[in-house]
Design goal:
Number of helices: 19
Number of domains: 3
Low-confidence stretches: 3-9
Shape: globular
Distance between the termini: 63 Å
Strand order of the largest sheet: 2-3-4-1-5
Order of helices and strands: HEHEHHHHHEHHEHEHHHHHHHHEEH
Helix content: 55-70%
CATH architecture of the largest domain: 3-Layer(aba) Sandwich
CATH topology of the largest domain: Rossmann fold
CATH superfamily of the largest domain: P-loop containing nucleotide triphosphate hydrolases
């Protein structure tokens, strides 16, 4: 089992998730479309890739497309076409339906043209007036294929958020989601099956726009963190695979330090401990190493790129700078004070009332995103970080700049 800290994994490097894969496989084989969600670094892409690999072994065709870079619906249709390029029975028929110009310029599909070149040529034949028709035809060609097809559209929420920032963005997002739902609902025969996923939440987005029904054809499934037992087993398997002895209790200490079993963080912690042992010419990992590497590596400079990703994705998941500012204040309060309480919320509402008219609604929406995307979880006394790693990182960022929100409450005496 290889150590992996920045790429999706499959096959022998894929660890556990058997119950989740069984549920997803069952839903897909029954023809149910799925909305896969889960907090950052939970391994959603790896789960989807592994699901596709296993279904291919059962006679399916698997199309995976990442639309994070898309700016308009035409880009998304071209991305799906690129994913379908290797399947000549789909791509050839689709080219024929697009008209003479495309047919003459694409040449023989799958022969003298790469998937990327194919995408460029397909994109050139799409515009605001034709993407719906051609996109629907592409999906129907997948439906007519002699094998069942699983289509995964990854990072769809990021594409929608980008489109939302353009003129007429809300209308265009609603049009695209309505088209996507209608196209798949009109299919006969149960294929292709659609799975939508992303590193920011789709559900909070459509609720803020008042169009939750646009995704009611998607059966929600949430990828949860690993348990203590699974996290420990993964860490010990990694240590065994790389021939690194570990002292008793090290794997449990890693989980306790992280606070939650996020697969990427377990992998990252192992990689840092392994590198530390190599640099110090040690032949094993000790309990003391866990505390030192957590402090100097995971929370230190080498861990910053990974953790900054959380702040970047949060900004992409919110509507504007004000909502982002509210979310950051909530996180700073939860990190430095241990919890974002009801009193702290009232104070935050008061602070923003002088800036915006709907401070209560905006705070509710920010909390919805923070909880849905795994930054915070609700408890009896307020909202807390489930991840100790994220809490400690946010606390280090704000402990010297954040004034507790409760200090802004008026003195009742």
């Amino acid at each position: 089992m290889k150590s992996s800290t920045g790429r999706w994994v499959s096959g022998d490097d894929f660890f556990d998730r058997e119950p989740e894969l069984q549920v997803l496989e069952s839903r897909v084989c029954d023809g149910n479309h799925v909305l896969l969600s889960g907090q950052r670094r939970m391994g959603k892409t790896s789960v989807l890739r592994e699901l596709g690999r296993r279904l291919e072994d059962q006679g399916w065709d698997f199309l995976f497309t990442d639309v994070e870079g898309a700016t308009c619906p035409e880009d998304v249709i071209a991305d799906i076409a690129e994913a379908a390029h290797p399947i000549r029975s789909i791509s050839s028929r689709f080219v024929t339906t697009m008209g003479r110009w495309i047919k003459e310029n694409v040449e023989e599909v799958g022969a003298g043209i790469s998937a990327q070149e194919f995408r460029v040529k397909i994109r050139a034949g799409l515009n605001a007036g034709t993407w719906r028709r051609h996109g629907e035809r592409l999906i129907h060609e997948c439906s007519a294929h002699d094998k069942p097809v699983l289509l995964v559209i990854d990072e769809l929420p990021i594409f929608l958020k980008r489109m939302l920032r353009e003129d007429g963005g809300e209308r265009r997002v609603e049009e695209f989601l309505s088209w996507l739902r209608g196209t798949f609902q009109r299919l006969e025969g149960g294929s292709p099956v659609l799975i939508v996923s992303g590193s920011i939440g789709l559900t909070p987005l459509v609720h803020r726009l008042g169009i939750p029904d646009r995704i009611n054809h998607l059966d929600p499934f949430t990828l949860r963190p690993w348990s203590l037992e699974t996290s420990v087993e993964c860490f010990e398997r990694l240590a065994e695979s790389h021939g690194i002895p570990i002292d008793d209790g090290v794997a449990n200490a890693v989980y306790e330090a992280l606070g939650i079993g996020i697969p990427h963080h377990v992998q990252s912690f192992f990689a840092r401990l392994r590198e530390s042992a190599m640099m110090k010419k040690r032949d094993r990992v000790t309990m003391d190493d866990v505390a030192e590497v957590y402090r100097t590596e995971l929370l230190g400079p080498s861990g910053q790129n990974d953790l900054v990703h959380y702040a970047t994705r949060l900004e992409e998941g919110l509507d504007d700078e004000t909502s982002y500012s509210i979310a950051m204040k909530i996180l700073a309060e939860a990190a430095t004070q241990g919890v974002f309480t009801a009193n702290a919320r009232r104070c935050l509402e008061g602070l923003y009332t002088v800036v915006i008219d709907d401070s209560s609604r905006r705070i509710t929406e920010a909390l919805d995103v923070l909880v849905h995307d795994g930054y915070l979880e609700a408890g009896r006394d307020g909202h807390r970080f489930p991840s100790r790693l994220l809490k400690d990182w946010w606390s280090a960022r704000f402990r010297d700049h954040h004034t507790p929100l409760d200090s802004h409450l008026p003195d009742e005496n």
